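Chapter summary example.
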Amino acid sequence: MKRRYHYIISGRVQGVGYRFFTQDCAIDLGLLGWVKNLSDGRVEAEVEGEESQLAQMQQLLQKGPSLANVDKITRDEEPIHQDENEFEMVY
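The structure predicted for these 91 residues follows.
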């Protein structure tokens, strides 16, 4: 079953390649959505796909790239987006 989740990731997640890591992982898993930096130092993402893919993605988001230190992830379910066909970095 397809789902879409909205994530807010806190910790040392900017300036460490976290967005690039997220985009690479999402593309590798065949997920749709986007990722961006927030002005307060957190990272925000929306990720859409099958539940098994999303479970893998959440584990990867918790780990992050080698220089990241993830303190907290919040997740809320969002409606599916019918018009999306890729995972992109938003600026």
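To summarize the output: The first helix runs from residue 18 to 29.
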